[in-house]
Design goal:
Chain lengths: 258, 274, 321
């Protein structure tokens, strides 16, 4: 129990999701996210991370249960209003259309009739892409492309970012760059972020981690509580040791499995 | 002696083959691949020899009862061969050349009718008569056509007129030079305003019609509803003398058939231009 | 910078309009018009120019929208089977002799055919309450083949002299342009253009993918349906005004994309403008080179358009690769 009760912005209550005639992909799952939280969503392939993010973003409708955004039923929030509150970025950002970076970024204004204060240039400055404003998105590297879309979400002004595997297929350098950028944005703009990820080492850096398996939450809490050998074995079916360096920095080792 | 017998038998053989080929020269089973050829054959009294026609052969009425072998541009070789014709009549005006070659390879004899202009018609009919072993009938028909044309040509006209013959109104296709229609217009000394285009059936400029201001406009009967289809065109040409003076004439398809009927067509045209 | 480019475009369009109105196929001095000239100008050249402009606008805009909707830079509005449906219907009208509407018969039957074809393609592209671009494209291609085959069947078995002439109409013919059809053309094309322009942002977002479009606050399936409707309206109206004119729908959006980028808020209106201008040029060429013989505009656009299309095909850059 934290002493300062922060505002709850996303509340997922007993949701089930299944395509008709199939096994449920999400089984009776609940959790909530407070303002400014930075949450890592960890789990093996097929555990339902992407589906959960899409449900939270309103792209999929839950078969049962409900998603509440700032206290309102997500399905009842008009599209444009929802777009000002939350933003979902898919894992694949392979845009075949030769839009310029500034064009992509300025699409963040689309939900608004009156332009918000932040400009395209400011957003590009924050993600460090100012010099690429005129470049075609198709000519950018994977990391740059990811940053361009993050700049778009800044203009969109959403308080909640749902990111599906934003670090996938990136070199370690770009992974760290994106991670640092997200942490910086969360600090600067008090944006809440939920991101799906694969790398347990990076999961250790989050304040909170959700560990998923078979469409349900195995554990939700601080990395120390969630990333334990037994829980990780249950989720990933491998033996992983979590060790601490003398500096207090945690790291993982694979023990006898390698 | 032995040698003499060989020579004799050889001579008999040659004689026999000559005789048999001259017998085969009177073709008894004819296929006509063009409506005007069908009409010429019926006019010469050879209708009973026709064993096949195209789907476009609709005149005279008996022609419709003959077996069909397809269209003018796409007759079915199989249908033609099945009818075992002695001769297939083709025209340079509508039958693709390749079909002649094709039929010859299949062992079917062909005859090519080359008339495309009015002046060529009598001569070509006579040639056709020779090929069909119907010289007398052909001479009679060709003579009849020549006489009528001569009479028409000698007819005095009050004043030469500017004439336009419309084949199809939308899009606007007219009869240009080197066509039997152009010949028919010129026969009386009138001018075809589309004669200078160099194309037989050009897509003509509407604006140019207004500038040329024809005195008479003919519209060919290319469709049962041709009067309806032409309404829009005629409304646009409202200020042209031909339209203003109600000198727009819808002609039957007589002029389209370069055979005995074209004479009737020319007479119809002459009546209108009086 | 792009304001300069846009004003250059508008200015050259005006020049083209003036040129084809007064200078071809024969020169007219706009200040000393005699009655004949005025008659020709008002009842022939002006409606023809307007029809060319309207058709070009409709094709340019609907090409841009369709390429965005299908995320396929090589899509042409005719790929949806709308034009072959219109051609088939018009030809069937000619053969069956339905002349209920007098001189409006061909445009009317063509529009009816186009509308029915759009609905059929839309129905095939529809699954589970949504319009799926891939299905739409395949349905359009399938329907085109079917309609085209039926049309060829009709032509090959028909004994009408007129049928063969009607085939020319399918190649696009503006010579019969008439004031009476222009208000209808304006109505449908302005409606279609209005829808597509008001949905230009949504189209941009859709080109990023359905999930991003949703995240940006658009109702993906509703937007897609509206955009398809705008294409169907504009293409149907253009086909019934003057038949099938190739390559504008394909070509114009590409030239504009080269000059001004992919933003549909600019791409759609400028493609429309350039489409209109290009068809005016093509028609001007078609009616002047062999004057008084006219070359159907559809043939002229294809003769200019095809080499350019092949050039684009060689130059892979246009596909963003």
């Amino acid at each position: 129990m934290s002493l300062v009760s922060k505002h709850t912005i996303l509340e997922i209550g007993n949701i089930v999701f299944k395509y008709s005639g199939h096994m449920p992909l999400i089984r009776n799952l609940s959790f909530s996210v407070s303002e400014g939280e930075f949450i890592g969503l960890l789990g093996p392939n097929g555990s339902g991370k992407s589906t959960l993010l899409k449900l939270a973003g309103g792209i999929l409708k839950p078969s049962e249960g409900r998603v509440r955004l700032w206290g309102k039923d997500l399905q009842s929030v008009p599209n444009k209003d929802r777009a000002k509150l939350l933003c979902y970025l898919p894992q694949l950002l392979d845009i075949g259309v030769p839009f310029r970076v500034k064009e992509i970024v300025s699409m963040g204004f689309y939900p608004y009739d009156i332009l918000p204060k932040m400009s395209v240039d400011e957003a590009l400055d924050m993600v460090g892409l100012r010099d690429k404003a005129e470049s075609y998105i198709t000519h950018l590297s994977g990391g740059e492309r990811r940053r361009a879309f993050i700049a778009m979400t800044l203009l969109q002004g959403a308080g909640l970012l749902l990111l599906d595997e934003p670090l996938a297929n990136l070199d370690i350098k770009y992974q760290l760059e994106i991670f640092r950028l997200l942490r910086y944005l969360r600090k600067e703009k008090n944006i809440s972020i939920i991101m799906a990820l694969h790398d347990i080492n990076i999961a250790l850096q989050f304040e909170k981690v959700i560990l998923m398996k078979d469409g349900d939450i195995l554990c939700f809490g601080s990395p120390e509580d969630v990333l334990t050998t037994s829980l990780l074995r249950e989720a990933f079916d491998v033996n992983i040791e979590i060790s601490k360096q003398e500096s207090g920095e945690a790291y993982i080792s694979y023990g006898h499995d390698i | 002696m032995r040698k003499a017998r060989v020579v004799l038998s050889l001579a008999v053989l040659i004689l026999f083959s000559v005789v048999s080929s001259s017998i085969a020269e009177t073709p008894g089973r004819i296929i006509s691949l063009a409506p005007n050829l069908t009409e010429i054959l019926f006019e010469m009294g050879l209708g009973s020899r026709i064993v096949g026609v195209t789907q476009f052969c609709d005149y005279p009425a008996e022609a419709k009862k003959k077996p069909k072998v397809g269209g003018m541009s796409n007759p079915s070789p199989e249908a033609v061969v099945t009818l075992k014709p002695d001769l297939v009549l083709m025209t340079t005006d509508g039958n693709p050349k390749e079909f002649g070659e094709r039929f010859r390879k299949l062992g079917v004899k062909t005859y090519l009718f080359r008339a495309q202009r009015l002046s060529e018609l009598p001569h070509e009919i006579r040639k056709l008569g020779m090929a069909l072993d119907a010289k007398r009938e052909a001479d009679a028909l060709a003579g009849r056509i020549e006489n009528t044309l001569k009479k028409l040509r000698d007819r005095k006209i009050a004043k030469p007129q500017k004439v336009l013959f419309i084949v199809w109104p939308e899009p606007l296709i007219v009869a240009g030079p080197d066509t039997a229609i152009d010949d028919s217009i010129k026969l009386f000394g009138h001018t075809n305003i589309a004669a200078g285009t160099g194309i037989s059936y050009p897509k003509y400029s509407l604006e140019e019609i207004i500038r040329q201001s024809p005195d008479a406009i003919f519209i060919g009967m290319g469709h049962a509803e041709i009067k309806e289809i032409s309404q829009g065109l005629l409304r646009k040409l409202g200020n042209v003398p031909a339209v203003r003076n109600h000198r727009v004439f819808f002609l039957s398809d007589n002029l389209y058939r370069l055979g005995p009927r074209i004479i009737k067509g020319i007479q119809e045209m002459a009546e209108c231009l009086k | 910078m792009s304001k300069v480019k846009i004003s250059i475009l508008v200015l050259s369009c005006l020049c083209i309009f003036f040129f084809s109105l007064f200078l071809t196929p024969s020169v007219m001095n706009p200040f000393t018009l005699n009655t004949l000239d005025r008659d020709i100008l008002v009842s022939i050249r002006l409606p023809r120019l307007l029809v060319a402009a309207l058709m070009g606008i409709a094709l340019g805009a609907s090409g841009a929208v369709l390429q965005g909707l299908l995320k396929n830079p090589l899509a042409d509005p005719y790929i949806l089977g709308i034009s072959s449906g219109a051609s088939l219907s018009a030809a069937m009208g000619l053969v069956s002799g339905i002349y209920l509407f007098g001189q409006f018969s061909i445009p009317f039957t063509a529009f009816a055919g186009a509308a029915v074809a759009s609905l059929m393609v839309g129905a095939f592209g529809w699954k589970g309450g949504r319009l799926l671009p891939e299905r739409l494209l395949l349905a359009g291609v399938g329907m085109s083949f079917l309609f085209y085959a039926a049309l060829m069947l009709l032509i090959s078995i028909s004994t009408h002299e007129g049928m063969r002439r009607a085939v020319l109409w399918i190649f696009g013919d503006l010579s019969m342009a008439d004031w009476s059809l222009i208000p209808w053309g304006v109505l449908f094309i302005v409606a279609g253009l209005g829808i597509s322009l008001s949905r230009a942002r949504a189209l941009n977002a859709l080109m990023l993918g359905d999930e991003l479009a949703h995240s940006l606050g658009f109702s993906v399936h509703r937007e897609r349906l509206l955009l398809f409707t705008s294409i169907a309206l504009m293409t149907s109206a253009s086909v019934s005004l003057g038949g099938t004119i190739g390559f504008i729908g394909l070509l114009m959006p590409h030239i504009v994309r080269f000059m001004l980028g992919s933003d549909n808020r600019i791409l759609i209106p400028v493609s429309a403008l350039c489409g209109g201008a290009f068809l005016c040029i093509a028609d001007t060429v078609g009616k002047s080179v062999l004057s008084p013989v006219e070359i159907p505009s559809g043939i002229v656009t294809a003769i200019i358009g095809s080499p350019y299309f092949l050039y684009l095909l060689r130059k892979k850059d246009v596909l963003g690769q």
